[in-house]
Amino acid sequence: MKKRIGILLCAAAVVLCVSALACQPQPAKSLDGQNEVAAGKGQAKYVFLFIGDGMAMPQVSSAEVFSTARSSKDINITRLGFTKFPVTGLATTYDAGTFITDSASAGTAIATGNKTLSGVINMDAGKTQKFKPITEYIHEAGMKVGIVSTVTLNHATPASFYAKATSRSDYYDIAVQLAESDFDYYGGGSLLQQTGKNKDKQDALEIAKANGFTYVNTKDGFNALKPGGGKVIAISPRLQDDGAMQYEIDRKPDELSLADFTRKGIELLDNSKGFFMMIEGGKVDWACHANDAGAAIHDVLAMDAAIRVALDFAAKHPKNTLIVVTGDHETGGLTIGFAGTQYDTFFDKVALQKKSYVAFDDEVLKPYKAGISAANAKLADLLPSIKESFGIDFDSLSAFQKEQIEFAFQRSMGNEQIRSFAEDKYLLYGGYEPLTVKLTQMMNQTAGIGWTSYAHTGVPVPTFASGVHQEIFGGYYDNTDMFRKLASAMNLKVL
């Protein structure tokens, strides 16, 4: 009898324990059923998602090595603000059709949690089903939404957070979707094809104004923007490269930076219900496509400066702010190491570069080509500008290096010389100005920096997280998991 009573009492105790546990708040579940958000923690109310387009560990590490090398001979690195974050993860980036994704399919994966084909934005591989980006869930929850990018605002990555398109090249249609959206703040680059491919459509910015957006493209107008003024499109006053913001290496000290656009976004979006802001360092990718390590490194550092602005905000709201930093893919096959320098690196040489490849083209090479015939062109005419722009002293180069630069110069001037195969030209120069890309490559190689591609690569990208629910961003996962992790941290009910 006593034994029976004891069993009953034990059973009752188990029931009470189970009942008590059932009444406790339960953590949200991820797609794979694992616990994501710890019970008892508050909602991520202010969320910053920084995306370094084309940025994987080589780009991050190069910026850290450079940050030390430009001021010291020590074999050490200077940690970036975001590499000090307490949680680090790693994400795979393949899409529905290839192991080497593009920004459209990668952006779709991050924004919606779905795989698609390269070139497709927020639609399935069959291009029939539309996916709902996390920003729409956020806006429906009453929070404000901001989208910032150093490239054009209807480019693939920013578009992944507000548009749906069968092709990322449908720039006008994407621009109209931006103009007709109800998100609160767009900032950075301009719009590609804002009057259509043939310039015969209604101006997308005029559509935006009719939809209640305030549009500014001057520094005074930017500085005058205040909270409570409604929806905003703020474009950088000085543009470069088909309407993008200028490379950080080319930006003058008094011109608007990515950090400025981030700071203004906080000012305009801050409210009692919270906000989400996606900030893209888009020209890291563009620089890496051109194998311009100097421009890429400076843009990584510019993104780090913008992240520090978010960290300042987080210090005032530590219990409900989340900052996540990641890349969408790696670009260029960048590596620290080159056959010609073997085990040595000389990153201090990167500090000698004063212009991006675009600025050199626009300010030096194009004017020269326009003012002289190919027959009369001489490399010697450009050597002072080459030294000023890239720190390359032609006289100190080897005979082999001089021959490479001379050959590239002749190709830029239209003198094909020995070889004229398209394949050979692409492999050597990637479709860029031969002289310019050869100069950046030579400067990189002298510094001990190597490249394998002018396109993207398929390596995983890092994620760094700081703030409320930071722990769920650790580990090794797929880029589609980013959507669910952000939704869990923000306590959003998503499909």
Could you describe the 3D structure shown?
This protein has 495 residues and is of the alpha/beta class. The chain folds into 2 domains: 46-334 and 455-489, Alkaline Phosphatase, subunit A (3-Layer(aba) Sandwich); 340-450, no CATH class. It contains 17 helices and 16 strands. The chain has helices at 2-23, 57-69, 103-112, 134-140, 156-159, 171-179, 204-210, 219-224, 258-269, 283-289, 293-316, 357-370, 383-390, 399-412, 422-429, 434-447, 481-489, and strands at 46-52, 87-92, 144-149, 185-188, 214-216, 232-235, 239-240, 244-245, 275-281, 321-327, 330-331, 335-336, 449-450, 456-457, 461-467, 475-478. The strands form 4 sheets. A 10-stranded mixed sheet has the order 5-6-4-3-9-1-10-15-2-16, with helices on both faces. The termini are far apart. The model is unreliable at 1-35 (pLDDT under 50).
Name some characteristics of this structure.
495 residues; alpha/beta; Alkaline Phosphatase, subunit A; 2 domains; two-stranded antiparallel sheet; 17 helices; disordered N terminus
CATH superfamily of the largest domain: Alkaline Phosphatase, subunit A
Whole-angstrom Rg: 25 Å
Low-confidence sequence ranges: 1-35
CATH class group of the largest domain: Alpha Beta
The protein's oligomeric status is single chain
* CATH domain topology of the largest domain: Alkaline Phosphatase, subunit A
Strand content: 5-15%
The biggest sheet, with number of strands, parallel, antiparallel or mixed sense and barrel status, is: 10 strands, mixed
Shape: globular
| Cα-to-Cα separation, first versus last residue | 54 Å
* Secondary structural class: alpha/beta
Mean pLDDT across every amino acid position: 92
* DSSP strand tally: 16
Number of helices: 17
Query: Which CATH-level-2 architecture of the largest domain?
Result: 3-Layer(aba) Sandwich
Number of domains: 2
Helical residue percent band: 25-40%
Q: Record the strand order, biggest sheet.
A: 5-6-4-3-9-1-10-15-2-16
